[in-house]
Amino acid sequence: MSSPNSTEEEIVDESTEPEEELLVDEERNALISGLKKDLGDDLIESHVTPGVDVWIRVTQECWLETAKLLFEKNKMSFFNFLSAIDWKPSPFGREMDAAIDNDSDDQVEGESEMEWGITGGQSRFQLLARVHNPSTNIGIHVKADLEGEFPEVETWIPVYPGANWHEREVMEMFGISFTNHPNLVNLYLPTEFEGHPLRKDFPLLSRRAKPWPGIVDVELMPGEDDDESEEIGEDT
Questions:
Q1: Is residue 223 part of a domain?
Q2: pLDDT 10s digits, 44-96
Q3: Rounded to whole angstroms, how far apart are CA atoms 156 and 154?
Q4: Phi–psi pair at 174, nearest 5 degrees
Q5: What CATH number corresponds to the domain at position 124?
Q6: How many CB atoms lie within 10 A of CB 201?
Q7: Please, are residues 32 and 48 in contact by the beta-carbon 8 Å criterion?
Q8: pLDDT of residue 190
Q9: Cβ neighbours of residue 202 under 8 Å, at least 6 residues apart?
Q10: Residue 56 three-state SS
């Protein structure tokens, strides 16, 4: 509070709250700056959440080169994972994932436009990998847009041998091939299986023929009648 003798200027100064300082992550920003210098236009987009994490999106052509830079120059020696994302909205709409879908009046029908996450995107399929520097405790997510209905990209195995079965899983589930992979065969499905189950346009027929296990009828508890059980079902 200001005193009765306070001037107008002093009152304004007292009521003005100090601005919050913007967080700056020098280490992660330096990592991005170095990658921009080395990759040039092949680094399409980047994002830093100070004190938390780093994301970059690179071209399909420099996917392997990015791995080499991260391992050799930036000491990202720990391989976390490699997978893929199909950003295409499902043409089947929701697949009754939860009991609340039973009462939904606004079911999604048909396809909508694709939306991408951090660092954006330009294609239906993206590769996603993460590596980590154990010394600095800084990791990075790497994304790459993939062109075509059945994309091909260089394997990361020469740099990160741990990518072996991850790439096999991506091939099997998404239909993405990895050039120079030494043993690109299925992990889970029989060889004669047709289709790629993690693609959004793959029909999960079992979920149409049989209710999803998460949607269950509420069984009567001892001493309850039908009305009470229905109320419990609605609450859950």
A1: no
A2: 999 999 999 999 999 999 999 999 999 999 999 999 999 999 998 877 665 55
A3: 7
A4: -120, -15
A5: 3.30.460.80
A6: 14
A7: yes
A8: 84
A9: 195, 196
A10: strand
